[in-house]
Amino acid sequence: MNNSQTNNSQMQDKEILEDVLTSQKAVTGAYNNFANECATPNVRDEFMRILTEEHQIQADVFDTMKQRGWYPTPTAEQQKIQQAKQKFQNANQQ
């Protein structure tokens, strides 16, 4: 396989994973809504089980993309982390 074919293959893989990640976000959102609106515990439990599975798929795809450098996640600054913690601690105390 020459360089052009390798680059095309990687681009196709990236596009496929981007599509899968977008789809998984939509699927988990839908199952979350379904679980929130269940009238019976048995049905809610089943939706929650499915939702957990779908979140795991989403996390696996995200991790794969991150490992390949296709979903960069910058490291948070310590000051911003402290600000966020303080904000939520204050909100919980109110």
TrEMBL record:
Keywords annotated in UniProt = Capsid protein, Virion
Q: Where is this region: Disordered?
A: 73-94
UniProt cross-references to InterPro entries, sorted A to Z: Ferritin-like (IPR012347), Spore_coat_CotF-like (IPR012851)
Q: Gene3D superfamilies, from UniProt? A: 1.20.1260.10
What segments bear the compositional bias annotation Low complexity?
78-94
Protein name per Swiss-Prot or TrEMBL:
Spore coat protein
Q: Which organism is it from?
A: Caproiciproducens faecalis
